Amino acid sequence: MDSLAAAPGTGPATSPLPVLRVSKVAKTLKDLPTDRSLVMGVLNVTPDSFSDGGRFGSSDEAIAEGLRMHYAGADIIDVGGESTRPNADLTLPDEEQQRILPVVKALVKAGALISVDTMHASTAAKAIDAGAAVVNDVSGLDFDPAMPALIAERKVPYVLLHRRGTAATMGSLAQYENVVEEVITEMSRVRDAFVSAGVDPSLIILDPGLGFAKNEDHNWSILRAINRLNTLGHRVLIGASRKRFLGTLLTSAGKAAAPQERDHATVAVSALAAANGAWGVRVHDVGPNLDAVKVSAAWTDQAPG
Ligand code: PMM
Hints:
With 305 residues, the protein is an alpha/beta fold. 37% of the residues lie in helices and 12% in strands.
């Protein structure tokens, strides 16, 4: 059974700030480039994170890493305070908010465009109040029934991710006859629930949820079908960064590659996802992935989507 990345990574947590690669401050998604796929940097502010190993457990460390991503050119920085790895404990909204709100505020102040990775509508509301411009919800709407009304009211872009079950059950639910069509049917059902609740469909961004109730073959089947996902009329976000299926692909001497050894493969996925029309890629190592989507845009000479 595939799952998400599962061990501490390494990265530029202590390296100096790189040269600023952002050209202007973006306050909404409309201010971001449209001639290439976008890069969303992953900033997990959790003591027990998986792919970055809880490196950014304190606000100050997380803010410093967020600034590094901003300076490296991240179009969006996705701030999350709850681990989504399989079997992770649930985080209470209060604790989640204590972790992420200072980080959201500081990065917004620095001019970064922030999305909040949360399954809790109350956390999403407070993050929007603090300046977050996007809500990224990995629950597959199986979690907080207040989310559609919140998105309808606040009118912010919403990433709707496909998942079956919870962190505890999703592993056993990775069973499909035709993964692409079933993911589309299930995502469309949730999309329709949001639209019925008054959400403007143009605000909904679809994410097929690699590793969320998907094994390795499922993940590759979905990646091969980005063009098909694009026909649904929504922007498509792909989150492959450092996930376990890349570790398995890179197995050497019987040992899967560790999360920190999966960044080059992640860059390859970003280039190919962008070339196949993904609107955005969610990644840990911003700079090389930004280069990859730029190469893809130059190569294909067409806008994503
Ligand atoms: N993956 C993780 C967490 N949040 N959000 C979106 N939209 N897509 C994903 O694939 C996704 C996510 C889990 O892993 P990570 O935070 O270590 O990348």
